[in-house]
Every structure is written in structure tokens, then in C-alpha cells.
Amino acid sequence: MRARKLASSLLSVAVLAAGVVALTPTSAAAATPKCTRQVEMKPRAGYSYFMLIPKSATTVNCYMNTGTQNAGVTALQTALVYCYNATKGPEGGYFGPGDIDGVYGNDTKLALESVQVTLFPQELSMHDGIYGSRTAAVLQFPWHNPSNDRIMDTCTRRDGTG
């Protein structure tokens, strides 16, 4: 009888622990806000040039995935075109200026996956086509010249490196 109670208690603890583990990723994902806009960020202090990078209402540490449609996606797509010459999968061709539409569709996902393979060659789990904090930290964005509103051929990480 005593052994049965102990086994039952251990089983209950195991089930509860599994439930906590299963909830953890969802809680972590919910803590990262979705990118909803783009913001001008100067690559280096004192420069008149700026980069357009995705941002939520409060932070640049945000995420986007398939189905997102806003100015943040436009900033990501601009980086994919002008900094990476990204491809839309093995048979899809290049992601070009005509693909910049602010809609995070399959082509954007595939283009970002191809860039992630380059950025994270040893981390297969990062090849998911999702714009998240780790991808955002190393992704380069093109500089814009405000005097003529042109995209320049210089790309930099949002921290000014690279």
C-alpha cells in the first residue's frame, strides 16, 4: 500500500513537471513582442545616414513570421534584397526589389531561411525563416541617405558593427 502511494505521488510530480516544461516555451515566446513598425536607427553616432529596422511599440527585440503585414516586414525585406541578395529556396530565384511589399509571405520566409543558413551554419534550429531576437541581432540593414532618399550599398548590424 505504501509503495503504491509513493508511486502515485511520483507519477503526479512527473506529470506536473512535464506540464511546466511544456508551458515554458509558450511563455517565453509570448514575452517577445511582435514587430509592428520600422524605426530609423543611425548606424553610428553623428552620421546623417540611417537604417530602417523592425520594431515593436517598445523595443527592437521583436519577432515576425509568416502572416505578419506591416512596415517592419518592409524593413526586413529591404535588408534581404540590398544586403544579402537572398534566394527564395532552391527553385525560387532571387528575392528582389519587386518582392518588397510589407507582407511576410512564403517568399520572405524562404529568403530569410537562406540568410539564416549563412548566419548560423551550424545551428539547424535557426534555419526557420522566423525573424526573432537572435536573427535580428546579427542581420545587417542597408543605410539610407536622407538627402536623396536612396538606399545605399553599405549594410551594418543594428549595433553598428559588421
Strand count, sense and barrel status of the largest sheet are:
4 strands, antiparallel
The beta-strand count equals: 4
What is the C-alpha radius of gyration, as a whole number of Å?
Answer: 21 Å
Q: Count every helix, treating DSSP H or I runs of 4 or more residues as helices.
A: 4
Termini gap:
66 Å
Mean pLDDT: 82
- Which structural category do the helix and sheet elements fall into? alpha+beta
Order of adjacent strands in the largest pleated sheet: 1-2-3-4
- Amount of beta strand: 15-25%
Work out the helicity level: 25-40%
Q: Which descriptor suits the 3D outline? A: globular
The poorly predicted ranges are 1-28
Series of secondary-structure elements, N-terminal to C-terminal: HEEHHHEE
Write a structural description.
The chain is α+β, with helices and mostly antiparallel strands and 162 residues long. Helices cover 38% and strands 15% of the residues. The chain contains four helices and four strands; from the N terminus they run H-E-E-H-H-H-E-E. Strands 1-2-3-4 form a four-stranded antiparallel β-sheet. The longest helix is centred in the N-terminal third of the chain and has 30 residues. The radius of gyration is 21 Å and the shape is globular.
Keywords:
single chain; 162 residues; alpha+beta; 4-stranded antiparallel β-sheet; 4 helices; globular; disordered N terminus
Quick recap:
With 162 residues, the chain is of the alpha+beta class. It is 38% helix and 15% strand.
List the helices and strands and how they pair.
Elements: H1 2-31, E1 37-41, E2 50-55, H2 71-82, H3 106-119, H4 133-138, E3 140-145, E4 150-157
Antiparallel strand pairs: 1-2, 2-3, 3-4
